[in-house]
Design the sequence.
């Protein structure tokens, strides 16, 4: 079994967590070349929070998006790589950063590969000057979490969106999780393709299903364990933010709850084999960890998050991100960088102060955006003013 390397001691001691000694992952500098509305910009920062101040459309969120690309995946908005080229020159973009990460000081570089004709959707990743085997390697060195206005509907959208959100949280606990998710998705796509072609190669089908089972069980275990840590860490979030309880259900997840991983593997394998005809007819895999349900409950109201007000949903989302930072500190001794895009303007004064206090207590390097500098006066931070893609650091 290709099981996840997860610590099974999930009985989180909240006192230990509150007193834990940990490292806060943070950027020391960031350079963008031909990225979105920036021709070239270089920022020097310390480990404190960073506040980007400027008018709407100045380029604040573009900097957050660049930071998000220092981790696996397609970043804040899952944009196509050419769409992030400089808006005036259309030249390919490059991002370079020096960071204090999970393994100490590291130099990370990434950008769109412009040397090959078919490079529109390929990017190069370099770690300490060496080309990485895959962009998933970034999870071993640097970790980022984010909240954007586009996530305001997280709890009312489909489960696919919530699964992607959860998986990004899991990356911070388990650096191999991104690779497993990619391997599972690849095996599933190949199985679907083979079934569409008639599925006559039973041996190859069984091999692909075995890959789905191995990676799928490991992914399910990692998700379940991360949720347990998040739920426990939620107990330490200040009273100004609503407590959330996360739960995950599905055929594979329920099998793991009832039996051992080996038994769950066998059940999953049998279900995939028995469902080939239905999957061939539908053109997709109807069973697997890609179909699980993720639910968030507002604990005080005992109400599903999707039934809460917009403001409460935003506060629940902030609670989950703060809980992840605390859980990560206890799990592997490090806190990820946090990207909080236009979060503050939607909080009342009490919750604003509470968020600043939480960030100070955790010690996270949070990058926040806003149009009004004054609402950040209570936060000990570096302030960077942006105007039409130009930087004024203060």
Sequence:
């Amino acid at each position: 079994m290709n099981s996840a390397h997860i610590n099974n001691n999930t009985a989180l001691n909240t006192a230990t967590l509150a007193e834990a000694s940990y490292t806060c992952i943070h950027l020391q500098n960031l350079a963008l070349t031909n990225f979105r509305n920036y021709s070239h910009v270089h920022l020097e920062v310390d480990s404190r929070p960073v506040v980007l101040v400027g008018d709407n459309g100045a380029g604040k969120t573009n900097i957050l998006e660049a930071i998000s690309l220092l981790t696996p995946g397609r970043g804040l908005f899952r944009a196509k790589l050419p769409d992030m080229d400089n808006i005036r020159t259309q030249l390919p973009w490059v991002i370079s950063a020096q960071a204090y990460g999970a393994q100490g000081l590291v130099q990370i570089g990434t950008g769109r590969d412009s040397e090959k004709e078919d490079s529109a959707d390929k990017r190069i990743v370099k770690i300490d000057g060496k080309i990485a085997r895959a962009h998933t390697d970034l999870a071993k060195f640097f970790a980022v979490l984010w909240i954007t206005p586009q996530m305001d509907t997280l709890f009312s959208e489909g489960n696919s969106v919530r699964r992607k959100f959860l998986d990004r949280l899991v990356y911070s606990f388990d650096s191999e999780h991104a690779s497993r998710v990619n391997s599972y998705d690849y095996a599933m796509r190949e199985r679907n393709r083979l079934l569409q072609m008639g599925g006559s190669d039973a041996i190859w089908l069984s091999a692909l299903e075995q890959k789905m089972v191995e990676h799928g069980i490991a992914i399910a275990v990692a998700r379940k364990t991360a949720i347990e840590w998040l739920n426990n860490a939620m107990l330490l979030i200040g009273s100004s933010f609503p407590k959330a309880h996360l739960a995950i259900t599905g055929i594979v997840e329920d099998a793991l709850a009832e039996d051992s991983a080996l038994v769950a593997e066998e059940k999953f394998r049998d279900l995939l084999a028995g469902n080939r005809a239905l999957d061939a007819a539908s053109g997709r895999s109807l069973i697997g960890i890609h179909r699980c349900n993720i639910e968030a409950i507002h604990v005080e109201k005992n109400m599903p998050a999707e039934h809460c007000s917009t403001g409460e949903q935003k506060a629940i989302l902030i609670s989950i991100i703060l809980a992840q930072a605390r859980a990560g500190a206890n799990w592997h001794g490090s806190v990820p960088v946090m990207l909080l895009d236009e979060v503050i303007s939607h909080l009342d004064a009490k919750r604003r102060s509470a968020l600043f206090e939480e960030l100070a207590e955790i010690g996270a390097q949070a990058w926040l955006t806003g149009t009004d500098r004054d609402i950040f006066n209570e936060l000990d931070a570096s302030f960077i003013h942006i105007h039409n893609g130009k930087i004024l650091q203060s």
